[in-house]
Structure formats: structure tokens, C-alpha cells
Specification:
The protein is of the alpha+beta class. It is 40% helix and 19% strand. Strands 1, 2, 3, 4, 5, 6, 7, 8 and 17 form a 9-stranded mixed beta sheet that branches. Strands 14-15-9-16 form a 4-stranded antiparallel beta sheet. A two-stranded antiparallel ribbon has the order 10-11. It starts with 8 loop residues before the first helix and ends in a 9-residue tail after the last strand.
Length: 476
């Protein structure tokens, strides 16, 4: 399948490097086609942490990406080679039998045995999904080669990019149609069920459906994309790495998520609304007759009038478990020894949803200096709300403050919070100021942060390239 549009020069250069790396390693057979997919990282402009409460999010895509090349095998062997893994002290290769994908519990145990091989869960999880859903089409093994310039543990969705690129390349190699929302949902399923990460669908959907130099509005109920919004001429959004690692399997993220579902449960119980498992959902979730299982459907005005003062500021896990029949989130658990920020988590779920809708509407209207200032203020409000949920980061606060002092209209923490990348809103002519902020930050921190300043197309727009021989310098 051919790409929908021409790639930027930086992407083409890395594409050449990927093809050269494939040839240099001599990993594939020379007579069989190789299917190659590319999944960029995403920059969470607005909405991080409301994807699992059914809110609206606004996402952009990065230039940096994960590339996955797949070649089917006639035997049952599955080989994975990720040469770049050695940079992070991870195991760069793995070989298993296709029969090892038959049992989910055993697969999860294999992937979690050593931290150095945990990255393989995203690849093997993708293969498990495809083989379990399409048994007859996926007979035999596969050779899988991975290359990436997208850094891990930065909050730019390197894990989602890896699983989506694997799903896209492997499904194409096996002749399985997989694209759009179905591809994004498959990626979320892998992360939730196989990896055990309590993420929503925001990252996967953005990576699949996003377009270069556009923002993707997405209502996560469960995945309703809107037309991508092109950034107005002269307006830019950069990402600066705070150099504080983050993960959706981290303690702060899971505590904030669990707090939101505690608040949802309390509100439904208060109103006499039954919450039951949603039998129609591909991803395990709970639902109800009024909010449909999505806390973000609660209007901010109703929250302020009826629930803000009534909800506990914090609630101890032991106390919640003593009064609740069940925790209605399949992907987090309640610890008796943790105090959950219930009120702030519910406030964030309803108000961030509104903030995202406001920014999306402002970007689609005629942009003026006053509207840019308003968007910047909304971004700053979102950043403050992260801290209220226990997701703050002193390093991210530092970068936000530096950006505001330099005259940028707004900046905020991205993704799940508690570290990662800070998004900064500005104009194209402000690029030198971004680099100056990074250099001053580096002088105090002792290391230069990465700046994310490019964009590229999502997985579906890029398509799947085919290498007919590893020695070819370009993909077709």
C-alpha cells in the first residue's frame, strides 16, 4: 500500500537509514517481501488523563517515530531484533515459538520477568492480538526488525508507537485489513490486557489517525475522531523534555486514574444509578444509564453546583473499599493505604473536557493575538490542574515558568503528568527562544533536554512500505 502523501525530508532520511540498517544486519531472507510500518510519537497538546474518563482530547504528532519491519516465516519461529535497545541496557533480541502466543497468562509472565525485556510485551502483545483474532491467516512465524528515533519514557507515546507499528506491519504482512479506529482499539487492547497499562485510547488513536502539522480532536467515547485541525499559519507548538521519566504504569498516574473512578462511583451511588459492566465494549469497562460510564459527560456547572463540595477532598482506599461494593475500573486497583485525590480528579475530568473543546473551537476560528493569549491561559490552567491531581512535577513547573517569563502565551505538562515533556505554544519566530530556554535549563540540570519541533503523518496516512530486497536503498 502506498503512502497517502509525501513524507518530510527528515522522515525520508530516516527511512533510508532504516532500509540501510535492515540490509546491514542481514536479518531477513532476500527472496521474500518485507512489510514496513512507521508510527510517530504524539504530543499531548490538551486532554491527557481524560481519555479514560470519556473526555475530548487534542493531539499532535511528532517527527520522531518507531519503524517496524515484518517478514513472515514458513516455520513456527518468531525472531525480534531491536538493535537500538542496547542504548537503554535492554535486551536487543528475542526468539520464541509461535506456540508461545497461545496462552495469555504465560505470555504476560514471560514479558514481565525482567525489566530489560519488558519492551517486548508491546510487540508480542500485538502478535497475540492478531493470532488470537485471525488464527488461520497468521500460521507460521515471523522475523521482526525495529528501528526508532523516538525516545522512551518521555511521555511521547513510544510504547503506543511500538505496538501500533507492529500491528500495522504484521497485519499487512499476513493480509489482514487493520486501520483506523479498529487499529487504535487493537493497540489499546494490547496495552490494557497484555502489558497491563491503565491507558485510554488517546495515544493510539492520535498515532493512527493524526496528520502532519494538524491537531486531532478526539472524543474518547470510546473513540470518535473529528477532522484534524491545521495549526494556523505562524503558530507553533514545541515539546521540551523535562528529563523526568514517566509511564502510564507509574504510581502517580494510576492513583489519579483510580481517584477519578472512585469519584464516578460515589456520584452514581449518590444518585441511585446502577453501574454495570459494558458487555458490548471491546475494551473492558463499566457503564450506566446517565453518564454512559464517562465521568467527563458531567457538565462543569453541575459538578460545581451539586458535587464539588460534597465529594471528599481525599478518600482513603480502606474507607472506600468498606463502603463500595466494587471498584468500577478494570485496570487499576484500590490500595487500602493510599489517600486518593477524589475531588481534584473529578474536577479535572469535567473541566479539562471543557478546556479542550474551547481550545479546539478557538483554533478553528479566526486566530488573533487575543485568542492566542486565551489559548495560552487555558493551557496554563490545565497545567495547574495536573498538580491538583497529584501529577505535578517540579521540573515541568520550572520549564513552564521559563516559557512564560520568556513571553510565550502558554505552556503545560503533557501526557499522564508527573514528568515527561512540556508543550509550549508560540509563534514560528520564537524558535530561537525555545532553544535558549532549553540551553538555560541544561546549564542548571547538567544535560541538554531534547526539543521536539517537527511533525509527520500518522500510521494510516503514511501507509505500509514494502521492501522487496534488503539491499534496496528506498522503500516502495
Amino acid at each position: 500500500m502506498s503512502p497517502a502523501v509525501e513524507s518530510p525530508p527528515e522522515v525520508c532520511r530516516f527511512e533510508d537509514e532504516v532500509a540501510s540498517a535492515i540490509a546491514a544486519h542481514g536479518f531477513f531472507e532476500t527472496e521474500t517481501p518485507i512489510w514496513v510500518a512507521r508510527a510517530p510519537g504524539r504530543l499531548d497538546v490538551m486532554g491527557g488523563n481524560v481519555d479514560y474518563t470519556g473526555g475530548m482530547v487534542l493531539q499532535s504528532l511528532l517527527r520522531e517515530a518507531v519503524w517496524v519491519a515484518v517478514q513472515p516465516r514458513a516455520d513456527e519461529t518468531i525472531r525480534i531484533l531491536n538493535p537500538g535497545a542496547a542504548r537503554f541496557n535492554w535486551e536487543p533480541s528475542l526468539e520464541i515459538s509461535a506456540s508461545d502466543l497461545d496462552d495469555l497468562a504465560s505470555l504476560r509472565l514471560r514479558c514481565s520477568e525482567r525489566e530489560s525485556s519488558r519492551w517486548t510485551s508491546y510487540v508480542l502483545g500485538a502478535l497475540y492480538f492478531l493470532t488470537s483474532c485471525h488464527r488461520r491467516k497468521t500460521e507460521g512465524g515471523a522475523d521482526i526488525f525495529i528501528a526508532s528515533d523516538l525516545p522512551p519514557n518521555k511521555g511521547v507515546s513510544s510504547s503506543a508507537a511500538l505496538e501500533i507499528a507492529t500491528l500495522k506491519a504484521a497485519s499487512a504482512a499476513w493480509g489482514i485489513p487493520l486501520e483506523g479506529v479498529a487499529l487504535a482499539t487493537a493497540g489499546q487492547w494490547v496495552e490494557n490486557v497484555v502489558v497491563g497499562a491503565a491507558c485510554g485510547i488517546m495515544d493510539q488513536a492520535a498515532i493512527v489517525l493524526g496528520r502532519e502539522n494538524h491537531l486531532l480532536p478526539l472524543l474518547c467515547q470510546p473513540c470518535q475522531p473529528f477532522l484534524p485541525v491545521m495549526l494556523p499559519a505562524g503558530l507553533r507548538i514545541w515539546g521540551i523534555d523535562s528529563m523526568v521519566p514517566r509511564s502510564t504504569t507509574g504510581h502517580a498516574y494510576e492513583t489519579a486514574r483510580a481517584a477519578a473512578f472512585i469519584g464516578y462511583n460515589l456520584i452514581c451511588r449518590h444518585e441511585g444509578i446502577d453501574v454495570t459492566p459494558d458487555q458490548a465494549s471491546e475494551i473492558p469497562r463499566w457503564t450506566d444509564s446517565r453518564l454512559k460510564g464517562y465521568l467527563s459527560n458531567l457538565a462543569p456547572s453541575e459538578f460545581r453546583a451539586k458535587y464539588e463540595r460534597w465529594l471528599p477532598d481525599t478518600l482513603n482506599g480502606r474507607e472506600f473499599l468498606s463502603r463500595a461494593d466494587e471498584h468500577v475500573d478494570p485496570f487499576t486497583s484500590i490500595s487500602p493505604d493510599i489517600d486518593y485525590p477524589v475531588r481534584a480528579a473529578v474536577r479535572y475530568a469535567v473541566e479539562e473536557n471543557l478546556r479542550v473543546q474551547m481550545v479546539s473551537a478557538l483554533l478553528q476560528a479566526k486566530v488573533s493575538d487575543s485568542s492566542i493569549r486565551l489559548i495560552g491561559e487555558i493551557l496554563c490552567q490545565s497545567h495547574v490542574a495536573y498538580a491538583e491531581c497529584g501529577l505535578g512535577s517540579a521540573a515541568a513547573d520550572d520549564l513552564v515558568e521559563r516559557a512564560l517569563q520568556a513571553g510565550f502565551p502558554g505552556a503545560k505538562m503533557t501526557g499522564g503528568g508527573a514528568g515527561g515533556v512540556v508543550a509550549v505554544l508560540g509563534r514560528s519566530e520564537d524558535e530561537s527562544s525555545i532553544h535558549r530556554i532549553a540551553e538555560e535549563y541544561a546549564a542548571e540540570r547538567g544535560d541538554m533536554p531534547q526539543i521536539f519541533e517537527g511533525s509527520s503523518n500518522g500510521v494510516d496516512a503514511f501507509g505500509v512500505r514494502i521492501l522487496h530486497h534488503p539491499s534496496l536503498s528506498r522503500m516502495q
